[in-house]
Amino acid sequence: xxxxxxETVGSIFSRTRDLIRAGVLKEKPLWFDxxxxxxxxxxxxxxxxxxxxxxxxxxxxxxxxxxxxIRAKFYATYGSGQKAFDLFNPNFxxxxxxxxxxxxxxxxxxxxDEEKLFVDTGKALLAEGVILRRVGExxxxxxxxxxxxxxxxxxLSEFKGRLDFLSPRRKLVFLNFRSNTVRLNxxxxxxxxxxxxxxxxx
Length: 202
Prior knowledge:
Elements: H1 12-22, H2 30-37, H3 66-78, H4 95-108, H5 114-127, H6 137-158, H7 160-164, E1 171-178, E2 181-190, E3 193-201
Antiparallel strand pairs: 1-2, 2-3
Helix pairs in contact: 3-4, 4-5
GO molecular function, one term: structural constituent of ribosome
Subcellular location: Mitochondrion
Protein name: Small ribosomal subunit protein mS23
């Protein structure tokens, strides 16, 4: 429709009316008669905004709190965690909020170094029973546990020959994990005493 390309000229009603008069539109739109019967008080035409002279208004600054920097560093270091926020509990405090409060508390004691203060806050929360895991640390721990489990399976298959000769009475197996060594303690309890064997593998 060639006549409707100038959106800034006239209103949508006047442009549609002209298209109907020129024969471009064969049928009137549903809203045309309603608009004609009840025209708006102010015709919706394009008006260029007036240029305002004088002192320019300063842009509105974003609201920024001192705690936001601590929160940003916390989430960058430890992530958001897997625990969901309990919005039904009005007294609920997230781990991040507890970290921020402890950080400010230690900061008021006179500590100035931000890095040391950040580490000390993590240690203080750890003393209170809050365990913080760094981003990517959980995946590393899972890989280490998987590797340790594979080594344990290899060790158990190696010790299978030693376990077979024990009677099917009560057997207590203790596993000690120290550094890279898997230690297997086998204890068999019986009526004639007890049998003890200790073996280890790297």
